[in-house]
Amino acid sequence: MQVRRTFLLAGLAALFAAGASAQTAWPTRTISLVVPFAAGGPTDVVARSLAASMSKTLGQTVLVENKLGAGGTVAAAFVARAQPDGYTFFIHHNGMATSTALYRKLPYNPLTDFEYISQAVDVPMTLLARKDFPANNLPELIAYVRANASKINLANAGLGAVSQLCGMMFERAIGVKLTAVPFQGTAPAMNALLGGQVDLLCDQTTQTIPQIKAGSVKFYGVTTKNRIKALPDAPTLAEQGLKDFEVLVWHGIYAPKGTPKPILEKMNMAVRAALRDPDVVKRMADLGAEVASDSKLTPEGLQTWLKAEIDKWGPIIKANGAFAD
Ligand code: MLT
Any coiled-coil ranges, and where (predicted)? Predict the structure, then answer.
């Protein structure tokens, strides 16, 4: 009996040691960073900048994988069900919070089905129209949209996308309802705007600054409380009369629930190192993005923020009646 017990304990100890050493050795192969929107768009731009730097820190490739659909919820559900083995991570923005109010049946719970690693960067948004849209400034845009609401469409990346959230805030601010044209990310939405197939788009500076600077779109202002360094002459929507209009995009990095703590800690260090990497900092700053404050670069910082965002946006979304099943 005693012999059997000794064998059992030795076996368990060996198993535990193997698990612990696998975690210490992590990573030993390519890591997947899932992006919930189309390649080339704003979330993808942030993810690829971080992934390139994190690959150097971790000594293994961090590969960006775009999993599209349903405003980011297809990717979130995929990650919630993925193996918690340290080889699947997820980057998502405000949609991780807003989807809880937007979808009646969300196939995951953002507050219980994930591990939290860190926030990353905050990104302003910009309100744009196709280049030949008749309105040349915000007052003209408001007047024109109010007078022609039934003929105007507004592109977005689906329910749960920040482009949808920002568009909804704009509609609410000026008291109109426009025709929504959903895409699987704002990269294809921007192509449609550039091609003149859609009228309006509210999108992140990480994609829009090059187009604004090239003059290939009409630009009406930024969605932040204050003007931004990357576009110092651009007025905010709030200072032009849309009082209290504020949408700022924040990004969080997550893992499937149950991913071992030592891996989460190493991943947090790699994210922080990427956010201090001069190449990443410069690229993000040129595109209007700012590294999140220190207190948000922790698992607790992300988790607390996510909960606060769920509480903030839920009532606003419900008041607007924008739901999907
Ligand atoms: C994207 O990466 O395509 C955007 O973040 C989608 C959005 O939320 O508007």
Answer: none
DSSP state of 175: T
Q: Is the pLDDT of residue 11 over 70?
A: no
Q: Which residue segments constitute the domains of the chain, with CATH numbers given?
A: 2-123+249-320 (3.40.190.150), 124-222 (3.40.190.10)
Instruction: Confirm or reject: Cβ of 42 under 6 Å from ligand 1.
Output: yes
Cβ partners under 8 Å of residue 79, min gap 6: 34, 88, 89, 90, 114, 254, 255, 256
Phi, psi angle pair for 119, to nearest 5°:
-85, 170
Opening angle at CA 172, ends 166 and 175, nearest 5? 140
* 67, 73, 96, 162: residue to mutate for ligand 1 pocket, most atoms within 8 A of CB: 162
Model pLDDT for residues 66-124, shown as the tens digit of each residue: 999 999 999 999 999 999 999 999 999 999 999 999 998 899 999 999 999 999 999 99
What pTM, to 2 d.p., does this model score?
A: 0.90
Three-class SS of residue 196? coil
Tell me how far the alpha carbon of residue 146 is from its chain's centroid: 30
SS3 at position 230: coil
pLDDT of residue 203: 98
